[in-house]
Design brief:
alpha+beta, Beta-Lactamase, 4 helices, 6 strands, 32% helix, globular, binds methionine sulfoxide
């Protein structure tokens, strides 16, 4: 297992995801515990991109319960359909929010968050079993490169979800 993440000195997000994916894949190889895998993935993404908040919520007993994350303390639980996270869960699709103040029902966990992306993760049942939430202190910080790069990283977690 790698002891240290090697992060290229670039702001090119595509290059950063390309460098990050194989390292996270190697880091998680053989991991059977979903919480451990989520924890290391969050740490790797946070260390690489320095976003304000990076973390998972798991679907437990019909609500989203915060899981491993990096950043300030988080709101939990979140109901189905509520906020960006609950909407990504209900619609089972990635939601990118350029300006959180313009998203009706956005749940404010930290006033420093300005934009956000939330990706649903499907478990073995085929249903959404978790969401991956990334919050940025920069407006309009997420685009198609992030949607693809983060989805590929989430694909490393999905086989461990129920
Ligand atoms: N802003 C989110 C809540 C989660 S926190 O940002 C960690 C939302 O509206 O779903």
């Amino acid at each position: 297992m790698a002891e240290q993440l090697v992060i290229p000195r670039t702001t090119d997000r595509a290059a950063l995801y390309a460098a990050l994916f194989p390292q996270v894949k190697a880091l998680l190889a053989g991991e059977t515990d979903v919480v451990a895998a989520m924890a290391n993935l969050c740490a790797a993404v946070h260390q690489t991109f320095q976003w304000h908040w990076v973390g998972f919520y798991r679907v437990l007993d019909g609500e989203l319960v915060v899981g491993p994350f990096q950043g300030p303390i988080a709101c939990s639980p979140i109901a189905h359909g509520k906020g960006v996270c609950g909407t990504a869960w209900a619609k089972a699709r990635t939601i990118t929010v350029p300006d959180v103040d313009a998203f009706p029902g956005h749940i404010v966990c930290s006033s420093a968050s300005r934009s956000e992306i939330v990706l649903p993760l499907r478990g073995g049942s085929g249903k959404v079993a978790a969401v991956f939430d990334v919050d940025s202190s920069v407006l309009n910080d997420f685009g198609p490169v992030d949607e693809q790069g983060l989805a590929e990283l989430c694909g490393l977690i999905e086989p461990l979800l129920p």
